[in-house]
């Protein structure tokens, strides 16, 4: 059978041509001013695009029918998106308010878990003139459950009903505008285990229909908007809409008195701060924070704000994995080469990137101090007792990280 013999051939081909044109346009964004013109970061921008090209149709088509929901990981060690943080896992499932769902699984030992019902995605961020972040983001949180609110059996098994009539426990309400479940889990100590999840619609008695040409065309257009949107919006969307939390004009320091901590952040169970950094080849950056209790996380990202290579490199820290100096100060050191310090944040050779702080389930504020120094002069700017590591100890730490990350993702 040749092209033109099917009634939908022209429409399908036109949709695919549009997608290819959008993909070509998305590639041009790798050369935007926000992405440094060095070989590693130019390549990383295309890697950011190709990683998400790989999931474009999973989001647009394969998991997108709310009558036949599936849980999809949209970040992994080889797929970064949305300013993801290294010590988080992110999953979603497309749902709607017309159905009732059963979310079930077995609790792991990760320190923090949040399941959120997300509502409509407005064209503009509420209260602003800025457009919403590209699909699949921009939703408004409607309701959530934290891990400690989910009642489980003795072996950790649990069941949460999503939608339908109210229940006394393990229930999440939906609305006519509900469109997805958003599942985030955060890890502290190496060896913490992930929570397993599966979702199904109650009353699912028929098979899932195959995509029609019209459905395929719709998905192709959605995927095209997705790849152009992610290359267009990152990182500028964060600069324009994050209330100053991410400010490239405030280089190598956290913008003072700027945190993400509004009502939507509270529903997500977090507060956040953000720093944009630039390091010359011979420079290092010391980031200081007075130790405070609670569950906080630091994570490195590239120019497009995808997390750095957390499977192989020390690009994130949490309370259980951080050494605190004798004066009660947490000191993290961003450097291009291993300085032999325990709390090293590897730039992976990038000249520019970002550092994100998350504080989960706490309103305890942190005050940050930064010091840009020459890498060779680092010892002169650190307390004498700052924790150091030998090459063999670093290798052991990296292996411990590698095995723990693989455990989180079932690799």
Describe the structure.
The chain has 411 residues and is an alpha+beta fold. It has six helices and 17 strands. It has two domains: 9-234, no CATH class; 238-409, Jelly Rolls. A five-stranded antiparallel sheet has the order 1-2-8-4-5. A four-stranded mixed sheet has the order 7-6-3-9, with no helix packed on it. It has a four-stranded antiparallel sheet with strand order 10-16-12-13. α1 (9-28) runs parallel beside α3 and α2 runs antiparallel to α3. The radius of gyration is 22 Å and the shape is globular. Pfam families: DUF1214 (PF06742). This is DUF1214 domain-containing protein.
What order do the helices and strands come in, and which of them pair?
Elements: H1 9-28, H2 39-62, E1 72-73, E2 88-94, E3 101-106, E4 112-118, E5 141-146, E6 157-162, E7 171-172, E8 180-186, E9 196-201, H3 213-233, H4 236-241, H5 263-268, E10 270-278, E11 283-290, E12 295-301, E13 316-317, E14 329-335, E15 344-346, E16 352-360, E17 368-374, H6 391-409
Parallel strand pairs: 6-7, 14-15
Antiparallel strand pairs: 1-2, 2-8, 3-6, 3-9, 4-5, 4-8, 10-16, 11-14, 11-17, 12-13, 12-16
Helix pairs in contact: 1-3, 2-3
Task: Tell me about the largest β-sheet.
Answer: 5 strands, antiparallel
Assembly status: single chain
> Which blocks of ≥5 consecutive residues have pLDDT under 50?
260-269
Count of the separate structural domains = 2
What average pLDDT do the residues reach? Answer: 94
Assign the structural class, choosing from mainly alpha, mainly beta, alpha/beta, alpha+beta, or little secondary structure.
alpha+beta
From the spread of the alpha carbons, the general shape counts as globular
> How many DSSP H or I helices?
6
Write down how many β-strands occur, each being a DSSP E stretch of 2 or more residues.
17
Gyration radius, rounded: 22 Å
Q: What portion of residues belong to β-strands?
A: 15-25%
**Helix and strand run:** HHEEEEEEEEEHHHEEEEEEEEH
Strand order of the largest sheet: 1-2-8-4-5
The portion of residues assigned to helices is 10-25%
Distance between the termini: 42 Å
């Amino acid at each position: 059978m040749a092209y033109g013999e099917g009634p939908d051939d022209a429409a399908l081909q036109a949709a695919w041509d549009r997608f290819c044109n959008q993909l070509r346009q998305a590639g041009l964004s790798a050369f935007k001013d926000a992405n440094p013109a060095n070989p590693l970061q130019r390549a990383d921008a295309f890697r950011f695009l190709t990683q998400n090209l790989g999931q474009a149709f999973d989001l647009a088509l394969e998991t997108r029918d709310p009558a036949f929901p599936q849980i999809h990981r949209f970040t992994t060690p080889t797929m970064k998106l949305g300013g993801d943080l290294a010590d988080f896992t992110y999953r979603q499932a497309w749902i709607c308010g017309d159905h009732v769902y059963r979310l079930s699984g077995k609790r792991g030992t990760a320190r923090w878990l949040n399941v959120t019902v997300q509502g409509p995605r407005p064209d503009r961020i509420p209260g602003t003139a800025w457009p919403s972040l590209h699909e699949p983001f921009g939703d408004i949180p409607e309701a959530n459950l934290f891990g400690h609110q989910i009642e489980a059996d003795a072996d950790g098994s649990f069941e949460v009903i999503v939608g339908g009539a109210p229940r006394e426990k393990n229930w999440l309400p939906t609305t006519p505008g509900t469109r997805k479940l958003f599942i985030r889990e955060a890890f502290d100590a190496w060896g913490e285990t992930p929570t397993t999840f599966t979702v199904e619609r109650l009353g699912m008695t028929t098979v899932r229909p195959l995509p029609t040409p019209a459905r395929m065309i719709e998905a192709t257009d959605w995927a095209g908007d997705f790849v152009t949107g992610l290359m267009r919006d990152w990182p500028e969307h964060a600069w324009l809409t994050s209330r100053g939390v991410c400010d490239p004009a405030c280089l190598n320091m956290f913008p003072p008195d700027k945190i993400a901590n509004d009502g939507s952040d509270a529903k997500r169970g977090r507060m956040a701060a953000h720093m944009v950094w630039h390091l010359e080849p011979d420079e290092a950056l010391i980031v200081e924070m007075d130790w405070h209790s609670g569950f906080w996380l630091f994570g490195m990202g590239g120019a497009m704000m995808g997390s750095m290579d957390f499977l192989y490199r020390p690009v994130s820290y949490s309370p259980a994995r951080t050494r605190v100096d004798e004066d009660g100060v947490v000191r993290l050191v961003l450097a291009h080469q291993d300085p032999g310090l325990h709390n090293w944040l590897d730039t992976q050779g990038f000249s520019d990137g970002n550092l994100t702080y998350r504080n989960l389930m706490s309103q305890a504020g942190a005050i940050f101090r930064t010091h840009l120094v020459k890498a060779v002069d680092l010892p002169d700017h650190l307390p004498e007792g700052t924790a150091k590591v030998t090459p063999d100890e670093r290798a052991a730490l990296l292996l411990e990280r590698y095995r723990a990350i693989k455990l989180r993702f079932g690799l």
